[in-house]
Design brief:
With 487 residues, the protein is an alpha/beta fold. It folds into three domains: 214 residues, FAD/NAD(P)-binding domain (3-Layer(bba) Sandwich); 115 residues, FAD/NAD(P)-binding domain, CATH 3.50.50; 106 residues, 2-Layer Sandwich (Enolase-like, domain 1). The chain has a six-stranded mixed sheet with strand order 4-3-2-8-20-19, covered by helices on one side. It has a five-stranded parallel sheet with strand order 10-17-11-12-13. A five-stranded antiparallel sheet has the order 21-22-25-24-23. Helix 2 packs antiparallel against helix 4. The longest helix is centred in the first third of the chain and has 25 residues. Bound molecules: flavin-adenine dinucleotide (FAD) and nicotinamide-adenine-dinucleotide.
């Protein structure tokens, strides 16, 4: 065992994902400790988004959607050749870029005189102190930010440890494109990978415990998306994974038999080459020993924070102790973590002028096939919050706009929900081509409090761009026309 060294920095951070951005020039003449154990599967620096999350997944979504071009082209009279996805080339293009960025980020931090990097797992020893058993370092910080993220939740069924079984942390580095993939789960990660693997040419079977996919979304969108997914790959509802058995237990290349159980108790078997488990993510509060350090947790294991992102202990904010990202946020989204990091960066530097993080109009997108984007309330939530009689909704089909005709689109929809008394937008849900971009004017209107009529008529919409689907959705709402409204 190494002798213990004690560091007393002005700022310590656990987590090099969103936490890494907190080391602003303000800290140049002060001492900072950054602790990160690295991504479990690769040891990489820089957290989930860069290494195993948003960025590599979307770099796979792009080739997968290009591989679908022949079906899209055929709708408008163009015949394209049979697509062939070169998985090793796609994988290497993605990770050559990402691994270099991660390595460069680590090297940069290692080279900074004012920053000590602890590249090991650390555990809290008090609200603003932690230790690394491996390096024998104890850190007692003036201010501490916990940005330790989340990890995949894996159901503990027999065979789950087989090498053919993956989470999003490992599946993107497979040697070959699997011919048959079983995807377990009906949420973000499961739906994105179902789109990727089916687009690239794998035979995909997606199973979900209940009926329908993306069930946390507006019901109309969840139903429309599920119907499209069912056309694009095999979806089996009301099934859980009971166990997995390797065909050849001594090899990690052969297939596996997945034993499923239906909700009415029947058993089924599936032969696949690879299993992706995407059944949610858990915050890493247990890994850092948050409860043992006396910090408050939500029921789902997240750290409890106030609007200034200060961590609570016994219901009270601990001065100089902050959290950002998946470890504390209900929405496990990178743009939320980034916003919280900007707020915390300000609060660390200005303890006498604390700012709050914004929780209104948080959008997100599911980059599946089709793509979905949403912001604000679902229709059910809106009806509950303001009364069903006070809401107005409009669902605009892409296919009923000029660009939708050009695309020969058959499934794209944009749904908007507003308060019919004031015209304020309450929620927006878009499914279809480029929905993650199309939704942005609605996020903007909600963020700046622009009513639906003014949002529609107070600006030009380029004709005949696909964005007209959003203009038409807004114009379809039954909302008051403000006095002197734009024409
Ligand atoms: C497959 C996938 C796709 C995604 N796609 C999107 C997307 O398209 N858009 C979007 O907005 N969001 C997406 N997300 C979510 C997004 O990646 C996360 O919300 C975001 O990366 C969280 O950042 P963070 O800083 O909270 O945590 P992380 O980036 O996970 O950083 C936490 C760091 O803390 C380290 N750590 C944990 N415990 C310890 C410890 N005890 N000691 C030392 N170090 C420790 C970890 O190793 C890790 O490096 C996706 C997530 C996944 C998994
Ligand atoms: N594009 C994006 O923004 C993006 C992409 C990926 C992930 N993420 C973030 O990461 C989070 C985690 O993603 P996720 O897809 O793992 O979680 P999720 O919460 O979106 O979906 C989890 C799914 O697993 C199912 N499930 C849970 N426990 C199960 C069990 N024991 N057996 C069978 N099924 C089970 C749930 O019913 C649900 O369908 C998301 O909530 C999101 O915040 C965002």
């Amino acid at each position: 065992m190494k002798p213990w060294t004690t560091l007393r920095p002005d700022l310590a951070i656990i987590g090099s994902g969103s936490g890494n951005s907190l080391i602003t020039p303000f800290w140049d003449d002060k001492k900072v400790v950054l602790a990160d154990k690295g991504i479990d599967s690769t040891g990489a620096f820089g957290g989930t988004c860069l290494n195993v999350g948003c960025i590599p997944t979307k770099m796979y979504v792009r080739p997968a959607s290009l591989a679908r071009s022949p079906e899209e082209a055929a709708k408008v009279g163009v015949t394209l050749g049979e697509p062939a996805a070169d998985w090793p080339a796609i994988r290497d293009r993605i990770f050559e870029r990402i691994d270099a960025i991660s390595a460069g980020g680590r090297e940069y931090r290692e080279g900074l005189e004012n920053v000590d990097l602890i590249q090991e797992k650390v555990t809290l020893t008090g609200p603003k102190s932690f230790r690394s058993e491996t390096t024998g370092t104890e850190v007692q910080a003036e201010q501490l930010v916990i940005a330790a993220g989340s990890r995949p939740a894996v159901p503990q069924v027999p065979g789950i440890e087989l090498p053919q079984v993956h989470t999003s942390d490992t599946v993107m580095r497979l040697e070959e494109l699997p011919a048959r993939v079983l995807i377990v789960g009906g949420g973000y990660i499961a739906c994105e990978f179902a789109g990727i693997f089916s687009g690239l040419g794998s035979e995909v079977v997606q199973i979900n415990r209940s009926h329908g996919l993306m069930k946390a979304l507006d019901r109309e969108i969840s139903e429309a998306y599920s119907a499209e997914a069912e056309k694009n790959w095999t979806v089996k509802y009301e099934r859980t994974l009971a166990s997995l058995q390797a065909h050849d237990p001594t090899s990690n290349v052969g297939g596996v038999t997945a034993h499923l159980v239906t909700s009415d108790g029947r058993t089924e078997q599936l032969e696949v080459d690879c299993v992706l488990v995407a059944t949610g993510r858990v915050p890493n509060t247990d890994l850092i020993g948050a409860a043992e350090a006396g910090l408050d947790l939500h029921e789902d294991g997240r750290l409890a924070v106030d609007r200034h992102q200060r961590v609570l202990a016994d219901g009270q904010p601990v001065e100089g102790l902050y959290a950002v990202g998946d470890i504390c946020s209900q929405a496990m989204l990178k743009h939320v973590a980034n916003h919280e990091a900007r707020v915390v960066a300000h609060n660390l530097e200005n303890p006498g002028d604390l700012r709050q993080s914004r929780v209104e109009a948080v959008p997100s997108a599911i980059f599946s096939y089709p793509e979905i984007a949403h912001v604000g309330l679902t229709e059910e939530e809106a009806a509950e919050q303001v009364g069903r009689e006070n809401i107005t909704t409009k669902t605009q089909k892409y296919g009923d706009t000029a660009y939708g005709w050009a695309m020969e689109d058959t499934y794209g929809i944009a749904k908007v929900i507003a308060d019919r008394r004031t015209g304020q937008l309450l929620g927006a849900h878009v499914m279809g081509y480029q929905s993650s971009n199309l939704i942005q004017p609605l996020v903007q209107a909600m963020s700046f409090g622009v009513d639906a009529y003014t949002a529609a008529r107070g600006q030009f919409w380029i004709h005949p761009a696909l964005m007209e689907v959003i203009e038409n959705a807004l114009l379809g709402l039954e909302v008051p026309i403000p006095e002197n409204a734009p024409l």
